[in-house]
Protein: ABC transporter domain-containing protein
Organism: marine sediment metagenome
Amino acid sequence: VFQKGILRNTLIGNIRAVDGVSINIHKGEIFGLVGESGCGKTTLGRLVLNLLSPTSGDVAFDGINIYKMKGREKELWFRKQAQLIFQDPYLSLNPRLTVSEIVGEAYVIHDRGMSKSERREQVVKLLNLCGLEDYHALRYAHEFSGGQRQRVGIARALAVEPQLIIADEPVSALDVAVQAQILNLLKDIKKRFNLTYLFIAHDLSVVRHISDRIAVMYLGKIVELAPAEQFVSNPRHPYTEALISSIPIPDPTLKRKRIILPGDVASPLNPPPGCRFRSRCIYAKKNVEIS
């Protein structure tokens, strides 16, 4: 996936939710995107999926500009290539449908030519793959725990055999123990099907655990991008340094010096000129404002 010069304005006050972002996501990698709430992470993910239209810029998938695709056939083709795992598994599951109907709906939409029994059989295989039992296929969303609902959401995303999965805060609503289980599941199915992930989160410790490369987003801009192993050991941007300093150390005898950022996040309606982080940066000089 390649994004070039993506810009996304909102209708309220012309907010640039995503401003001039250019990234490459390599096939088979887990690309982590981290940043605080409101920085544009989810907007960027939805732009990749063609769920939002950019004010300017392009998104290319396997060399094909998805914004220039026309016709339902081409749209359905891209929907088979890229799928979304939602942050809130409960709100993203239709309460009127059984799990079998929710996951099996993809086979109906994409006209796989399956009978009802064949769809049911395939759904059960996906549920088993995601750590659920056969009988779960006949249950409704409200009968599951948060972790089980997210497993259903993952099974639904896998139903069309996508190449790219956008995971938008997939574990933020779950307990820590369940988070680890879901992260391990995502890593297992990624390896099994050679999937590519855009993994979005606000928790750097979670992103670091699963990603090959990590990008940090602040007020609609990518401020740093580096391999995961280099990211923590040698951060280059002061905002990244502050994020890393907030990660708890599991050893109670060790302490990490916290970096407390001054001021508040600037308004996206009126971001500072030059570097977006300038108003909170302890290293900023006057020329940063215009450069």
